[in-house]
Every structure is written in structure tokens, then in C-alpha cells.
Amino acid sequence: MERRVFRAMGTEIELLVDADGADAALEAAEQEFHRLESLLSRFRADSQLSRLNRDGVVEAGHDLLRVVALSLDGRERTGGRFDPTVHDALVAAGYDRTFDEISSTARSDTWLPAAAGGDVTIDGERIQLEPGVRLDLGGIGKGYAAERAAELLATAGPCLVNAGGDIALRDGSWPVGVDDALTLELSNCGLATSGRDRRHWRRGERELHHLIDPSTGEPSDSDVLHVTVVASDAVEAEIAAKGLFLAGAERACAEADAAGTPAVIVTGDGRRLLAGGIA
Amino acid sequence: MTSHTGRLYATAFGLVVFFLAWALVAARPWSTAAADPRLKTLAAREARLRSEARLVNKVVAQRWVLYRRELRVRSAQIASAKARAAQLAVVSSVAAPAAGSVRVVTLPPLTITRTS
Fold first, then answer.
1. Mutate to test the interface with A, among B94, B101, B104, B110 (most CBs of A within 10 A)
2. What is the ipTM of this complex?
3. 3-class secondary-structure state, position A153
């Protein structure tokens, strides 16, 4: 088993491959993360995503096209709970720089929520935003990058890619810890965790976090602390996790059960609920 | 006359032998040409491209296998969904495509997930 850990996309990336002599594949997978970060980060002024947000239109490369298409598909399937157009709402709430820089930044106590939603059209290789619409692809970008990196790493052997909680797998069975007391054995699937327990900050009396409710433009007041979802891949898991987080604990359990989507839901008051076939 | 023709042939033959010898010497078959650094660079680049092409071919092959597998799963899901569609009153808004397999175990985890 070979392991490599590095930082990219504002989080820690872990690569595991069940093979010896996998240096070339590990290197290719790491470089894939850096390449995708340079395209999809909203914190890099020269990224394709920043150009799109600045100009409202861009002739996009394959990866940006794919991630935007996946996120729009996710928006439709979750009835708008997952929505990539929350960029301005995130910025208004204070998530306007990398998370490492937020805690050290002085801010006013008051802020005005920004609306989410708006048209995003894809025409061939051209992506066009309705005026005033900007995209954030942070979460889904990590899931997508994890899948692409896993694809490269799998040329060496069975592998797992953990992009700060978004996990992509190729072959083999992998025990993954959800918390101190729960380990799930996964194979041929993806997993993602969304929650307000890590990326949060304070403005005045209010504790804010990065999971915006598109219907209000403000950080969600869901009673869920964090939710872990298992799906066919890390992108699907990321979309479903956001949707279940915003649904609230009770409804999230019902929806996960109805959809057969394995989910572990931890509430703000410390309850852990298993749904979607996990027992 | 005979002697004149003979001299002509001899002269022509001598010229042919002379030029052949010249070409042979000009080719300098005994000398070892110093390797051109540009050739070395090209060879290295070719090797790198071959290596990348092999990697790309592997990825494409994996994608094809994955695509065929997912296509089978999707086809089965579509057939199953069509059969159930009339009975379903509500379609969950968060239905994610089915996962491979997941079960709770008591093994020590190889990695942990956390809020991304």
C-alpha cells in the first residue's frame, strides 16, 4: 500500500493505492488535482471559472464544461437545494477568500444576504451566465477532481482518493471512518460529507457557515450538523449530501430511505441517524 | 582503332572507380558522429510521449469498461424505474444513483471522511 498526502483546493488530499511502485500514478494523480484547481478555483484570478464569473461568458475547456453541466443537473435533480449560483451569497456572508484567511480577517457585524439562482446556459463549448450570476464549484469541484485522480491512480491498482472528505474509489474494499465509532466498508462507489462543523466563522452574534440555502441566500439553519452520503461516485455523493443537509434531519432520513441512498446524518444536538439501507 | 576504343573504356572505367572511391572516403564510415543534442532531446520527448500515450490508452480503456458497466446498471435501473413508476407517488428530490456496496464494519478505518 502506498500513500501520498498533499494540499490542494484548500484542503488536504490523501491518495492510497494498493500497489507497489506506483510513484508515476501517484504523481499523475497529484498533478491532476493541481491542474483542476487552476481551472476551477474561484480564488485564482486566472482560472477559467474566475474568467467566467468576471466576464459572464467563456469558451470553456472540457473540465469546466463537465463540472458546470454536472452541477446544473444536480440543481435540477435536487429541486434547487444544490445550486452552483450561490457564489455571491457566499461572498456576502464572508467566504470571499480561502478559508485559511477568513479567521484572521476583521469584518463588520452586519451583512446583506445575496440572492442565488439565475440562468446558466451551455451552448457547445460556451458557458454563459445571466447578468449578476456567478458560480461557486468548490464542493463539486473536489468531488470531480477526486474522480479524475482516482481514474489515473487506478492504472497502478485498486485505489482511494480522499479530497478533504470527498472520497472516490476504484476496485477493492475500503474501510472508511465516518466518525470515531462508525466505519463503513465501501467498494465501487463514492462518498461525501457536507456540514457546518468545519468551515464556519462568526459575524456579530451569528455563527455563519459555507452551506448556503439557495432559497434564502443565507447559510442554512438546518438542524443537521453534518451528513455523509454514499453514492455511485464522489460527485453524486456531494450533490446528495448538500441536498440532504438542507432538507433537515427528519426529512433527510425519509428522503434517503425512499431513494435508497445510504446516509449517516448527525444532528446539531449530537444524534446520529442511519438511513438509506445502512444498519 | 581498337586501341583507341580500349583506352576510352579504360578511362571511363577509371573515372567510375575514382568517383566511387571518392564517395566512399567522403562518407567517412570509420568516424563515429558525435550525438546531436537535439536528437537526444527528440528521443527523450518521444519516450515521454509514448509513456503518456500508454497512460492515456489505459485511462480510455478503463473509462470504456466503466461506461459499459454503468450503462448496464443504468439500463437495468431505467427498466426497473419504468416498472415502478406508476406506483411511486413521490420521487425523492435527492435520489442519487445507486452505490456499489456499503456496510458497517468493525475494521480500523484506512481513512476518514469529514466535512469538505
1. B94
2. 0.76
3. helix
